[in-house]
Amino acid sequence: MFKQLLTALLLLITAAQAHRDDGNEQVLLVNDKFTSEQWSKKYGDQIDHAFSGPLSFERVTYERCLDDTELKTPFDIAILGMPFDTGVSYRPGARFGPFAIRSGSRRMSEAWGYTLSWGVNPYSLGPKVVDCGDVPVSPYDNTLAVDQMEVAYSTLLSRPVMNETSFGSNITKGLALDGKAHPRIVSLGGDHTIVLPILRSLHKVYGRVSVIHFDAHLDTWAGLTDPASRSRINHGTFFYIASKEGLMSSRCIHAGIRCKMGGPADLENDDSVGFQVISADDIDDLGIPEIIKRIRARVGDTPVYLSLDIDVLDPGIAPATGTPEAGGWTAREVKRIIRGLAGLNFVGADVVEVSPSYDNAEITGILAADIVHDFLAMMLTDAPPRRVKGRSDPFPAAESDLCEIGPQVLLNTWSRISRENEETRLFLCIFIFSWSVPVQTSTAAQAHHHYDENEYILSINNNDDYKTEHWAKKYGKQIDQTFSGPLSFSHVTYERCLDDIAAKTPFDIAILGMPFDTGVTYRPGARFGPFAIRSGARRQRETRGYTMSWGTDPYSLGSKVVDCGDVPVSPFDNALAVDQMEIAYSTLLARPVANATALGSNGTQVLALDGKAHPRIISLGGDHTIVLPILRALHKVYGPISVIHFDAHLDTWAAYPGQATEQSRVTHGTFFFLAAEEGLMSSRCIHAGIRCKMNGPADLQNDDTVGFQVISTDDIDDLGIPEIIKRIRARVGDTPVYLSLDIDVLGDTPVYLSLDIDVLDPGIAPATGTPEAGGWTSREVKRVLRGLAGLNFVGADVVEVAPGYDHAEITGIAAADIVHDFLAMMLTDAPPGGAKTRLPVRGGVDSQFSPVKDEL
Fold first, then answer.
1. What φ, ψ does residue 552 adopt, rounded to 5°?
2. Is pLDDT of 383 > 70?
3. How does residue 443 score in pLDDT terms, banded at 50, 70 and 90?
């Protein structure tokens, strides 16, 4: 016994000496000088990159406005999601539209809102823009859902504005029947049915509203059902119903129509509803300037609502929609028309019918978000944008465009005048405009002169009782449904934990995103992994965490779980990024726990070198390189760590070809080798699911030197799941003797579990950077995880989720489900169904290991 102990001590001394001698060569890899630093002290605020952070439109302030009965947060423009899609006649899925549009806006922000085409940043113009979240509409009762949307919209319309003198707020004050300024709302659909409750709400404030309707379809059909039937209300009939209820003026106009119809009678009905039609082909025959003129002339100076169905665009440009029609407009054309409408009396707007499941590259959501940005500029400027200085034409876009479509003789005169002679060109432009517009608008202007908002009596089906009701009074709290709300893992509390210097919010387990992917050797994209995993967790929540396989709800076991957001890692400097991740992880490890007596917290207290309880962190990668800074941080608290590594690849290679510098050694395939060099891991680590191609047997010999044993992917067939569980438990230690000096006894070690999503077969989890055929199924992996409950877990991660390679979100959903298993695994003291008391294991695996047998 003494001889064995002496041998072990000599080996440790030798390894330590070797590590010390190499210190100077590893200055970029070892971070001892950062040991005691906190994130906020070294790196400042926990900022959000384009690929990280919580989800609100363009990262504006997120508020649960429907809960704010005390009106603590005034605003001028609200972004409001309406995830309703049970009024569709073809493909559903627009309930995910608000989420997709917000997701598409992640590269945008208030600070970066200036565009060449607008020549202004809408956020710099004074009004306050907030994201009010989503209306928690019922997906089961359309009548209820329509009422919920109306009540929610009316609740926000009744709020005070932030800046009464800003452009827009002063417009609403002049238009409103009560003479007061009202906020304006940009709604994110949802299917087009949402416009009916919106128009009902707007009518109470402004009277009849003129609608500018961008769409491939008329949406003015009367419907084939009984007029009294609730089924009449759908995304193709809402304008007809709104007309019958007296909600719209007779000054409405369509743009982009190209749908198939029953016949000319549909157009006659459309005219009776109050619409004129600009077809999709008119953009070729008339040109954009003429289309802008006709729209402006049609609506005049009435209260204007703009509704844009994303299918006005060609499906090749915006495929994610429910009723696509070929031959649509381009994004550039639509955006130019929108710019030409600035200065009209807009009281609201929407983008609808975005159904992200029909788009595998997020292009529709990105486009819709860009259009919403245009809406903000359109609603906050008093005229179409002037050409930006330095461009060829210095005049207002609308004026220049209108001039160019005047009579041919004037066009010829225009073309002969030098563009440098600005005064002459501007005079001629105004002359042409004054010559041409009255001919087209005199009748409309005369009609508007006699337009009396007060002569119409509101007639809303069964909605008279809701005129003065507040959302909170009628429907209670603004809850989040599975397909709505801000984005945190399983809807748990979101905290910017790295900013919480005073540690005001203690927790037991933190979800922490590490959106780092510049250590990969093949396909990048895992920086979007944290986002994808949180997105995949939207159907999960604390109140519905019970599963048959676990027999418990991890959120009910007394530990506080929070989502700490993402580490704002640098995508440009890997050395900096690795240090940022280590500092962030160490910062959270130093936080106090919420419940020191909870299972897991008491275990960390025994294992920690300082004898204190420490939080545990589940990291969302990011590529696998993130494990190196994690192990560095854990080593400071617990000493050497035993790693359970689920992966298709070893990740213990010493280097890759072309790694000429010390920092270039840090990759997602070398981090375990580097961790072993630094003495961060114990010699009791184990792989599970290995099936990669290698250079030869030497790779396995090196792997053994690093401290790993191997369970291959084929072992699941030859050994079975029970034996795999037993071997993993035996390897890392499965005894209550935490600090045994008897090396014949497998003492418990601190355990870290790292799961590369490519351990799963790529047919089950395609969204990863280095896929390998022949992997395990999600059912098999989840069963193995259940068999590991009760080990001394000090942390875990899921890495290498790269959602760009998955068009149906199945990888993100699988990863989110695995994280839920991690929570249960870390918060229970034995595999489900197993005995509560585990027996010491001596010299191998005890054949009477009850928990594994019961789990099987």
1. -160, 165
2. yes
3. very low
For residue 751, the one-letter residue type is: V
Contact predicate 303/168, CB 8 Å? no
Max CA distance (Å), the chain? 108
Q: What angle do CA 328, 330, 333 make, to 5 degrees?
A: 115
Residue given tokens 């809850």 in the structure block: 479
Distance CA 850, CA 855 (A): 8
> Coil, strand or helix: which one is 722?
helix
State which H helix or E strand residue 198 sits in: helix 195-206
Express each pLDDT in 797-807 by its tens digit: 999 999 989 88
**What is the C-alpha to C-alpha distance for residues 738 and 776, in angstroms, rounded to an integer?**
32
Closest CA to 531 of 563, 502, 498: 563
In three-state secondary structure terms, 232 is helix
Which residue's structure tokens are 């890392």?
Answer: 732
In the β-sheet with 793-799, what is the strand arrangement from edge to edge? 493-494, 561-566, 509-514, 616-621, 793-799, 751-756, 642-646, 685-690, 708-712
* Distance from C-alpha of 402 to C-alpha of 404, rounded to nearest angstrom: 5
- Asked whether 654 and 673 are in contact (CB, 8 A), the reply is yes
CA distance 178 to 454: 11
For residue 51, the model assigns a pLDDT of 66
pTM given for the model: 0.73
- Sole residue written with tokens 């010999």: 701
C-alpha to C-alpha distance for 5 and 314, rounded to whole angstroms: 74
d(CA 27, CA 31): 7
Q: What is the pLDDT of residues 163-210, one digit of tens each?
A: 988 777 788 999 999 999 999 999 999 999 999 999 999 999 999 999
Tell me what the mean pLDDT of segment 637-657 comes to: 94
DSSP annotation of 386 reads B
The crossing angle, in degrees rounded to 10, of helices 627-638 and 574-589 is: 40
**Closest listed residue to residue 599, CA positions, set 579, 617, 586, 613:** 613
Write down all domains in the chain, each with its CATH number in brackets: 13-50+487-855 (3.40.800.10), 59-389+456-475 (3.40.800.10)
Q: Please, what is the Cα angle at 670 between 666 and 671, to 5 degrees?
A: 70
DSSP 600: T
pLDDT exceeds cutoff 70 at 299: yes
- Residue 424 neighbours by CB distance under 10 Å: 12
826 neighbors 600 (Cβ within 8 angstroms): yes
- Residue 688: count other Cβ atoms within 10 Å of its Cβ: 26
Q: Which range (36-40, 476-480, 695-699, 833-837) has the least confidence?
A: 833-837
Percent of the chain residues past pLDDT 90, beyond the cut = 62
**For residue 152, what is the enclosing H or E element?**
helix 142-157
DSSP 118: T
Each residue's pLDDT tens digit, 447-482: 333 334 333 323 334 444 334 477 777 777 777 766
Going by DSSP bridges, is the β-strand pair 304-309/129-134 parallel, antiparallel, or unpaired?
unpaired
- What band does 232 get if pLDDT is binned at 50, 70 and 90? confident
